[in-house]
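G., the chain you wanted modeled:
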Amino acid sequence: MTLRTGLQRAVAVLLAFLVAMPAVAQQGTATGAAVAPAEKGAPSPAIRMLRFGVLPLGGTVESRALWTPLMNDLGRALGMPVSMYSVPTYEELDRAIGRDEIDMAFLSGKMALDAVMQRRMKVVAQIARHPGMPEHRAVLLVRKAGPLNTLEGLLAQPEKWRLARGDSRSVTGFIVPQSQLFLPNNIEMETRFRSEFVGTHQATALAVANGDADVATNNTTDLERFRQQFPIEAERLKVIWESQPPPGAQMVVRRDFPPEFQARLQNFLTGYGKAKGTRGDAEREVLKSLRAAYGYIAADDSALLPQAQLERQLGRQHAMAAAWVNEAAREQRLQRIEKTYAEQVEMLRPASR
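Predicted structure as tokens:
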């Protein structure tokens, strides 16, 4: 063997070793993260910070201010920083979840269902309801002194009026009004109105109060918050329709988190506001500001079954109301809806996990 040949072989062996090192290191890290037990009271070694995503409760600044006390308490309980990801639209939060930029979030039923079906998230908690507590419902708002002030007038000539509504992922801002009111009256919200404005519940209420829209979708919870923040504008509004109680929002966390860490998050939420003394009083005030006066209760993915049923119902209503080239095309669409619903039920049932 010549000196040159020996050097070439040595270089080749060294290069092969360097190429293999990242893969070996990555495999070792993944295995360690999956099986290494966390110290009692300490976060999993693989989780350095928790990223919490939340839909705007009014505006993004207001949402951040409302959620910050709870997130600060969560960070202290976990022993790690918690960052806030507050966005103005459903679409932006949806994209962030798709990019794995969110670890934990409080989501509407539609968004929670999508995230769970994509196997990105799992449900761990939901707001506790009390028998004497006002039920959360979707509503329609108009101006008291406006040209449109009755539900009958709205349904008779929808093309005459300007609509302010929520995103298509919003349960009370779009899905429930569409399913329970408009489609049963042969009205598609996206096409039948003179114009439409899409925004947050605060934005849609302001649009009607200020005369920029004639009717708005909203909900009882956000309307109560609106009355406190904008009493003058709220006085101009009246409710002309209320829905049946819709599926609730859910607290979700990343499905790939270690089970013990998921349990710690769930235990924090379900125990929050239960302490006695000054600490408990402070926590209960935080919960009141978030419209969760009775705290959170443990939940799992099966809590999304009512949302899956609602989407099935809405899909069938769309299919029955739409124009098709033939009946076979309509039937094919209905079959796809039933197949999707069956897949959702299978995924959400406790026995399937």
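The longest helix spans residues 3-35.

Shout if anything looks off.
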